[in-house]
UniProtKB/TrEMBL annotation:
Signal peptide limits: 1-24
PANTHER family: GOLGI APPARATUS PROTEIN 1, SELECTIN LIGAND RELATED
Subcellular location: Golgi outpost; Membrane
CC annotations in GO: Golgi membrane
Name recorded for this polypeptide: Golgi apparatus protein 1
Mapped Cys-rich GLG repeat ranges: 246-306, 375-434, 438-500, 554-614, 675-734, 851-918, 980-1040
Keywords annotated in UniProt: Glycoprotein, Membrane, Repeat, Sialic acid, Signal, Transmembrane, Transmembrane helix
Primary location recorded for the protein, binned into one broad class: Golgi
GO molecular function: fibroblast growth factor binding
Length: 1143
């Protein structure tokens, strides 16, 4: 054994030899009532060392005289055999060496009872003999001058030696310190040798049955057992265990004092020494004795498998005493002595001793200084780290947890004692992860107090269970952070629910963060950055006082950054927000019990059911959502899902330490980018839907329009209603040409953004969504939101809402989310100078540009199709034809409904009047544009598409599939006019022919073929009213004019078509006349001569068939056709244009 292998040196004799010359010539100061004569010093020292007190036998019998100065313990009959058997021969001549040898013997080694008795009397004489006290006075001269309380102690009762032992930590004299250290080993071998201990604790020893105190039953090991028994009783009392005995205060103080005095050398704790001798050899063989080093070494190995149970229990008792009084730890008390004094952590007369002496009080006081940025010595911080780790490893060291969490431990956490597993089990139960109910409030408070005392938030290594579980994650994800840095925990939280996180680490981390989140001061970085804000705004107490929640109010920038970091982390788990969990426990169970599989689902669920929540829960969810709207990075899971979009489109916003709603706005604007994945899109849409419930949930909108809302839309809460209120106000002010807009400029700008976002998804318009919910389920259940196209099959109420929405979008294209999104780049390219309300017009003008994006071109076409279904959806046409529509198309208006489109009837009506040249100038210009656009794409003519859909499929399928938008489908229908079976379709094609004769631009195929001839022969002719067409027809008949072959061929084709159209429409007209008993005639005129032939037709009253002379296949033009087609009738005689004459 190491204790037995140490070289035994006659220390006191050495001191005597060393000090003798000096003492012989040095006058001795007086100490109390003791004045040793100078001439007797040598004899006193020698007698005290070699022959302390009377012969033990004489003491026992009370009659024998003192032995000679050569008396040896080894020569006494009672101990001779035991000394010879147990002690090395070189120690036999030194009584102290023999004493140390015998009292440090192994527990299973027996020595004679008489020898035990002899040894005890010998030690008693050593501590009470006035001669020996005189030696102490001589050796400790300077010390006695400093320790007045020891100098005044009564002699002969052991008080002096006990006093010096108690103050040995303050002794600086080397010889005195060695002398007292040696005496300490003698005193602590028996509780009865400790000054006053027997008198103060006799009653408690008897009641607790801690061992025999009769003289004849003394045993070295049983004496240590008595102290250990009393120490365990102190622990049981602190833990309020069942049938715990309440020890008297003076005895309790003596027990703690004994533990304190034995703190530097584990040999002095006799019970622990004998219990742990083998373990000391196993784990701490090379650890030097003194200053509590062996204790600390054994503490560090307490949970090793090879540690004996008896030693582990003895160490636990020792640790529990340290938890009650930090001075029981020599190294901690010594290292932190100056810091305790500097930061006023010393005993306060106003505080009960039980509180200010506790380890937790010391840790809290010094941690408070550290968190405030004060300097605590490195040695003290090291000691604090060790004991904070000790508290986290073994829950039993905290009597409050043992007392208040007993039921939870027995029910949920039995058998998990080691390495902090029981503590983490209790944390897991407190979080509610076990599904077996919450812990008792007292247990919860005890756990919170322990976490504050241990302060693992400052250094994750304090939590051994967390450290071991997260080691691999730290090495990979957080290796850039210095070991032990508080940011390690923050780094782990940032990687929660990522691929780098392991399950065990995730559990331990959430268990710890659950308690850290309930006291904002337990995050050291947050506390350091925000302590001044908290004090200024909330008058919060010190770090180590009451547990406060995160204070509200205007924060400094540094503090706000940290608060946002905390909010980002806590949003990962609803249980990390104590207010949310506390106020929403009922609602979580009612609405969200099935939303616990994926992180973040519970908060989303609460947001979805915001209107259904109880008031207290709704308030906290609303506040959190309001914060989230300002900084969407609070939703860490959403940010992770949106990482590709952020990196490519929003990285500037994401890099800002403080967000003001810009990142969310960027994500909404880029929702349809190719980098956008389903998770990100769903998350962004979810938050948009939540924002609809309260305008405060849109941070930028709230900031820009808060004053306007209070002034113009008071008592309105839902965002959609607020937007409608403000938009209506803006529109009314605009229509009334108000001098000053009631809505502020900054609010109007943000209002545009909100209106645009609301048009993206039908769910963002709650009123519209409710009206169309059944239609969505019936017609669009498998169609992503924002892509439905089923307008004709909608219910009346839904159709009405959709029509009104389209009407608003056409009046203000900026509200057309799809158009603005798809054509974003094209708008920048072509329409930067256009007014917002004319963006669609600008895009239409540039639709056929070679630089036009195909997707944007397709979107423009969709909007043109929509506009042509109803003049009300074309605000430019509506304004231009304001007078013409009621004048020519009133019959159609009389049958119109606000809930349905007119399917192009009004526009078709205006087209016919355009051919008749009866429209006003502004209306004619707009109809010409529509004719030109629809001539290129048959889908822009609703009537043609409706009546000719089957014919197009039968006759022009190839042209329709090409979708080239060059008028090929229309040309196909014209070429196949004779094959068209449906009369309605034939009528529409005939109308196209009529329209094309009025304006060559309406016939894109002919216009393309004759573009060169128009430039050469008709450049001076203004377009419209058939003027350019007449010019080309005259050029065709002039043999001096040579037209381009393709132009000539196309013109001949058109003449044939017009002839057939004239015949068809004349027959229809004559049938009408015959039904009315009217005479009809046709007159044919030839371009080449002035002759004309007429044929009169009179209806037969009994017949049904009417025959008509075939017109000449080329060159005939009917007068009736001229009238019917509304075009210019060519004169029977040839008329040459000025351009041709000039040639």
């Amino acid at each position: 054994m190491a204790a037995c292998k140490r070289m035994q040196q006659p220390l006191l004799l050495s001191i005597f030899v060393f000090l003798l010359p000096a003492l012989a010539f040095k006058p001795q100061p007086a100490f109390g009532n003791v004045h040793p004569p100078a001439g007797a010093v040598h004899q006193q020292l020698k007698a005290a060392i070699l022959n302390p007190g009377s012969n033990p036998a004489a003491v026992s019998s009370g009659s024998q005289s003192r032995r000679s100065s050569g008396w040896k313990l080894a020569e006494e009959q009672a101990c001779r055999d035991d000394v010879t058997r147990l002690c090395p021969k070189h120690t036999w001549t030194n009584n102290l060496s023999v004493l140390e040898c015998l009292q440090d013997k192994r527990e299973d080694t027996e020595i004679a009872t008489d020898c035990n008795h002899l040894l005890w009397n010998y030690k008693l004489n050593l501590t009470t003999d006035p001669k020996f006290e005189s030696v102490a006075l001589e050796v400790c001269t300077s010390t006695m001058l400093e320790l007045k309380e020891c100098a005044d102690e009564e002699r002969g009762k052991g008080y002096l030696m006990s006093c010096l032992v108690e103050h040995r930590a303050n002794i600086t004299e080397r010889q005195c310190h060695q002398f007292i250290t040696k005496m300490t080993t003698i005193i602590f071998s028996d509780y009865q040798l400790i000054c006053g201990f027997m008198e103060k604790c006799k009653e408690d020893i008897d009641l607790l049955q801690c061992g025999s105190i009769t003289v004849r039953e003394k045993d070295l090991h049983s004496q240590g057992e008595v102290i250990a028994c009393l120490e365990r009783a102190v622990v049981r009392e602190a833990e309020q265990q069942e049938k715990a005995h309440q020890i008297k205060d003076e005895c309790k103080k003596s027990i703690m004092r004994v533990a304190e005095l034995s703190a530097d050398d584990f040999h002095l704790d006799r019970y622990l020494y004998f219990s742990c001798r083998d373990d000391r050899e196993r784990f701490c063989e090379n650890t030097q004795v003194g200053e509590g080093r062996v204790y600390k070494c054994l503490f560090n190995h307490k949970f090793e498998e090879a540690m004996s149970e008896k030693c582990r229990n003895a160490l636990t008792t020792r640790q529990k005493l340290i938890a009650q009084d930090y001075k029981v730890s020599y190294s901690l008390a010594k290292a932190c002595k100056a810091d305790l004094r500097r930061y006023r952590c010393n005993p306060d007369s106003n505080l009960p001793r039980a509180r200010e002496a506790r380890l937790s009080y010391l840790l809290l006081c010094l941690e408070s200084a550290t968190h405030r940025g004060r300097l605590v010595s490195g040695d003290c911080q090291g000691e604090m780290l060790d004991y904070r780790r000790m508290l986290m490893e073994d829950f039993s060291l905290s009597p409050e947890i043992v007392l208040h969490c007993r039921t939870e431990i027995e029910s949920h956490c039995s058998g998990l004692h080691r390495k902090g597993r029981t503590l983490h089990c209790l944390m897991r139960v407190a979080r509610g992860d076990t599904g077996k109910g919450a812990v008792d409030t007292l247990c919860q408070n005890a756990l919170q107090t322990l976490i504050q005392s241990a302060d693992p938030g400052a250094d994750y290594r304090i939590d051994r269970a967390l450290n071991e579980a997260c080691e691999s994650v730290i090495q990979t994800a957080c290796k850039h952070i210095r070991n032990g840095d508080p940011m390690i925990l923050s780094c782990l939280m940032e990687h929660l629910y990522t691929e780098k996180m392991v399950q065990d680490c995730e559990h331990r981390l959430l268990e710890l963060q659950y308690f850290i989140s309930r006291d904002w001061k337990l995050d050291p970085i947050l506390y350091r950055k925000c302590q001044n804000d908290a004090s200024r705004l909330c008058f919060t107490p010190g770090w180590n006082e009451s547990s406060e929640l995160m204070p509200p109010g205007a924060l400094t920038r540094d503090c706000k950054v940290e608060v946002q970091r905390i909010l980002h982390q806590r949003a990962l788990d609803v249980k990390l927000d104590p207010e949310l969990q506390k106020r929403c426990m009922t609602d979580l169970g009612k609405w969200c019990s099935e939303k616990t599989d994926t992180a973040g689902q519970e908060l989303e669920c609460l947001q979805d059911h915001l209107e259904d929540l109880i008031v207290a829960c709704r308030e906290v969810v609303g506040n959190l959502t309001e914060l989230e709207s300002e900084d969407i990075q609070i939703d860490a899971l959403l940010i992770r899902a949106c990482e590709p979009v952020i990196q490519n489109h929003c990285h500037d916003m994401a890099d800002n330490q403080i967000d003001t709603g810009n990142l969310l706005e960027c994500l909404v604007q880029n929702k349809h980018q190719r980098e956008m994945n389903e998770k990100c899109a769903v998350g962004v849409t979810h938050f948009q839907l939540v924002q609809m419930k309260d305008f405060r949930f849109s941070y930028k909108f709230k900031i820009a329009c808060k004053e306007d809302v209070l002034k113009l839309c008071a008592n309105i809460k839902k965002k959609v209603d607020v937007v409608i209120c403000l938009s209506t106000t803006v529109r009314n002010d605009t229509l009334q040409d108000a001098k000053d807009q009631r809505v502020s400029l900054k609010c109007r700008k943000q209002l545009r953004v909100e209106e645009l976002e609301m048009s993206e998804d039908i769910r963002l318009e709650p009123e519209l969504h409710d009206a169309c919910k059944k239609d969505i389920n019936k017609l669009c259940s498998s169609v992503p939101y924002g892509n439905a196209q089923n307008k004709k099959q909608l219910s009346q109420v839904c159709h009405h809402k959709i029509f009104k929405l389209q009407e608003n979008e056409m009046m203000d294209p900026e509200l057309d989310y799809q158009l603005m999104r798809v054509c974003k780049q094209m708008i920048k390219r072509f329409c930067t100078e256009s007014d917002a309300k004319n963006i669609l017009q600008c895009l239409k003008l540039n639709k056929n540009s070679e630089l036009m994006d195909p997707k944007c071109k397709q979107m423009i076409t969709k909007r043109q199709i929509t506009q042509n279904t109803d003049y009300r959806l074309n605000p430019v046409l509506r304004k231009a034809c304001k007078a013409d529509i009621p004048k020519f198309c009133q019959g159609i208006l009389n049958t119109a409904s606000d809930a349905s489109e007119l399917e192009g009837q009004v526009i078709s009506c205006l087209k016919l009047k355009y051919a008749d040249q009866r429209l006003s100038g502004s209306c004619e210009d707009q109809i010409r544009v529509i004719l030109q656009e629809s001539a290129l794409d048959y889908r822009l003519d609703p009537q043609l598409q409706a009546h000719c859909n089957n014919e197009i499929t039968r006759l022009c399928a190839e042209e329709a599939a090409a979708q080239e938008q060059t008028g090929q489908v229309e040309e196909c229908l014209k070429n196949n006019l004779l094959k068209i079976k449906q009369e309605e379709c034939k009528t529409e094609v005939l109308n196209m022919l009529k329209e094309s004769k009025a304006d060559i631009f309406v016939d894109p195929v002919l216009h393309t073929a004759c573009a060169l001839d128009l430039k050469h022969h008709c450049a001076a002719i203004n377009p419209g009213r058939g003027r350019q067409m007449s010019c080309l027809m005259e050029a065709l008949q002039d043999k001096q004019v040579r037209l381009q072959p393709e132009c000539k061929r196309r013109l001949q084709d058109r003449i044939d078509m017009w002839s057939y159209a004239a015949k068809s429409q004349m027959v229809d007209l004559c049938i009408l006349y015959m039904l009315r008993d009217v005479t009809c005639f046709t007159g044919s005129f030839s371009w080449g001569n002035g002759g004309a032939s007429r044929r009169f037709l009179r209806p037969r009253r009994t017949g049904h068939d009417v025959t008509i002379k075939e017109l000449h296949p080329v060159g005939d033009s009917s007068v009736c056709v001229c009238a019917l087609l509304g075009g210019p009738c060519v004169r029977p005689t040839k008329r040459v244009t000025r351009e041709l004459k000039d040639r």
